[in-house]
Specification:
Residues 1-181 form the TerD domain. This is Tellurium resistance protein terZ. Pfam families: TerD. The chain has 194 residues and is mostly beta strands. Helices cover 8% and strands 43% of the residues. The protein contains two helices and twelve strands; from the N terminus they run βββαβββββββββα. A six-stranded mixed β-sheet has the order 1-10-9-3-7-6, with no helix packed on it. Strand 11 and strand 12 form a beta hairpin. The longest helix has 9 residues, at 183-191. The relative contact order is 0.25.
């Protein structure tokens, strides 16, 4: 059973049998909101390029990033499956995927922060059905879902973070609106959540 996360909520990433998860998938899905007005409706929805990124931190310092121009972390534990430039048709599927092999994440990496930014610069008011979700990659079971609700006049979102907790990992839904077209633009805002 999936958990719908609210801002600031935390969940442990342990399986129901008490074992730790070994691999998770962060999926991002969205579609462009329909334009308003007669002529706008004829033109259809505007293409929106949202980008998912995973920022790896050790002791509060960035040590690596996975995004559309650097698809695999230097150690190979985090992989981005490719850039989607337009989003989906609202079918609820993942438009961008980042895979994290938790067992391979180097010991010095203590947090992985997931961000979403509008590379084309549209605000989230122009995006519909946007979500990110965390899935147990081994079983395919959805563990948690965070919905981007209410749109807003911002161009980015600091979605969630994975943080080492004892011998396992914990997920925190951050849901923090931000401004920026790239993950670099978001680094000052991300620092406040480490």
């Amino acid at each position: 059973m999936s958990v719908n996360l609210s801002k600031g909520q935390q969940i442990s990433l342990s399986k129901s049998d008490g074992a730790a998860l070994t691999a998770v998938r962060m999926g991002l899905g969205w579609r462009a909101a329909q334009r308003k007005g007669f002529l706008a409706k004829l033109a259809g929805a505007r293409e929106i390029d949202l980008d998912a990124s995973a920022l790896l931190f050790a002791g509060g310092q960035p040590v690596d990033v996975v995004f559309f121009q650097h698809l695999v972390s230097d150690d190979g534990s985090v992989r981005h499956l490719g850039d989607n430039l337009t989003g989906g048709a609202g079918a609820g599927d993942d438009d961008e995927v980042i895979l994290v092999d938790l067992a391979r994440v180097p010991g010095h990496v203590d947090q992985i922060v997931f961000t979403v930014n509008s590379f084309t610069g549209q605000t989230f008011a122009e995006v519909q059905d946007a979500f990110c979700r965390l899935v147990d990659e081994r079983s395919g079971r959805e563990l948690a879902r965070y919905t981007l609700s209410g749109g807003g006049a911002y161009t980015a979102q600091i979605m969630a973070k994975l943080q080492r907790s004892g011998s396992g990992w914990q997920l925190t839904a951050l849901g923090e609106p931000a401004a920026g077209r790239t993950f670099q633009d978001l680094l000052p805002a991300v620092a406040a959540h480490l």
